[in-house]
Every structure is written in C-alpha cells, then in structure tokens.
Amino acid sequence: ISNSHLISSVDSLKEKAIASLKAYETEVACEQCLQACELAMREYVKKLENSSKIEIIPENIGNPWKYRTYTRLCRLLTKKLNTESARDLSCGWNQATELNSHGYSHYNRPIEEVEPYFPIVLRFLEIFKNEVQVNKEMAEYLQGNLFKLNHDQPGEEIKKIQ
C-alpha cells in the first residue's frame, strides 16, 4: 500500500464523518471519526517501519492495535511534539474515544452535543498528516517504548497488551 493511498483512506474516513455529521447521523459520524484516528495511527507506525526498516510492532503480538496501544502511542508522541501540538493530539484522541464510547455512538445524539467536538478530532488527524516526524530517530523511540515491558511486573504488562 502506498503512502498516498493510506492518507487518502484517512481523508476518506474524515470526509465521510463530516458528511454524516452534516446529515445529522451523529452515531455514524462518531464511529467514522474514531476509525480515521485509529487508521492514522496505524498507518503512521507502518510508514515509520517502512521508511526506517525498524520493526516497531513485534511480530509475536497477534493483534497489537487495541485501545491501550493507541493511547500509549499518543502519550509517547506528545513527548516529542511542541506543547500546542501535544495538547491538541492528546485532546483529539480523548475526544474521539469519548464520542464513540460514552453512549454517543449507540444512538444518534443531537448534533449540538457532537458538533462542537469535531474540530478537536479533525485537528488530531491534521497533526498525524503534517506534524509528526517520520524518521529513524522516531522509529527507534517508538520501538523502544511502545511495547516496553515493566521489568518489575512483566506478567501484568504482557496481559495489558494482549
């Protein structure tokens, strides 16, 4: 998959979410926003792995992309971004998951309750598209930290990522 195809997939989900919101389909819009955020993060890591030839996601992890992985990736990236972008990234992920998990996605909420949060999530996607670094240093940083085990309690850490 080419990088331009990956970005257009995220952009496609983003546009579908915006269209769903305009059509007052808040349930669908919230789900599509979260999917776009998750895809942006997965494809960012894939792009880092391909460009640096560094394995960030260990092959022995069956399904690494769970809520904790996404959240940890965001937390790690906030340490490498400028203060404003770090805040926006963290807020965007929190808002995307909140819109989708606290009942908003189970039925159509009034647009007034959902629409104000969309710019925060769209800013998150913009950061992944234009501001996060794609270089060997970042790949090494994520390789060393994304699935790092707590050596005091390795069993607990393994349970968390499985």
Tell me about this structure.
- This protein is mostly helical and 162 residues long.
- The protein has a single domain (3-161), classed as Nucleotidyltransferases  domain 2 (Four Helix Bundle (Hemerythrin (Met), subunit A)), CATH 1.20.120.330.
- The protein is 70% helix and 0% strand.
- The two termini are 26 Å apart.
Calculate the mean pLDDT score and round it: 84
Span between termini: 26 Å
- Helix % is 55-70%
Q: Note the total helix count.
A: 8
User: In sequence order, what are the helices and strands, one letter per element?
Assistant: HHHHHHHH
Q: What is the count of structural domains?
A: 1
Strand content: under 5%
Q: Strand tally, please?
A: 0
CATH topology: Four Helix Bundle (Hemerythrin (Met), subunit A)
List the helices and strands and how they pair.
Layout (H helix, E strand, L loop, with lengths): L2 H20 L3 H27 L14 H12 L4 H19 L9 H4 L3 H13 L5 H10 L8 H8 L1
Short description:
This protein has 162 residues and is mainly α.
Labels describing this entry:
162 residues; mainly alpha; Four Helix Bundle (Hemerythrin (Met), subunit A); 8 helices; elongated; disordered N terminus
